[in-house]
Prior knowledge:
Blueprint: H1 2-12, H2 16-164
Amino acid sequence: MAQESNETTREQAPTSRDIDALQMQMNEARQESQSARQFAQQAQNLARQAQQQSRQVQHQANLAQSEANQANQQAQQARQQALQAQNQAQQAQNDADRAQNQAQQAQTEANSSQQRAQSAQDQADQAGQLAQQAEDQATRTQDRVGQWELQLNQLRQQTRHLQNR
Length: 165
């Protein structure tokens, strides 16, 4: 019985091979653990790099959005300025049209005044001609009156001369 017990104990006691195998398993486990830690560290580093790149990309996107907003504001201002310039040009055209109409009216009035002045001048000329004709007629009539007076005086003298006889 004691011999069986010794054999059982001998079977249960680890051999140097078992210890070596266990040591190898522990070393492999340590290496795997270390590899896993290194992989985890690399993964964390990659994650940090990705997060940093994501922040940079987000920052660039924010800058691009800000530039787009500024460009939109500038475009809106340019459109407003263009509308204002167009309105001013339309007002200037309207002013020019009004000035042209006023000039046309003034020219028409000037032409009418010129025609009235010419008509008055023509009437004055006609009145002058009539006055000259009346003056000429008066002169001729005065000449005839003078001739009649001369004839009358001659007739009186003849009458007196005949009476004196």
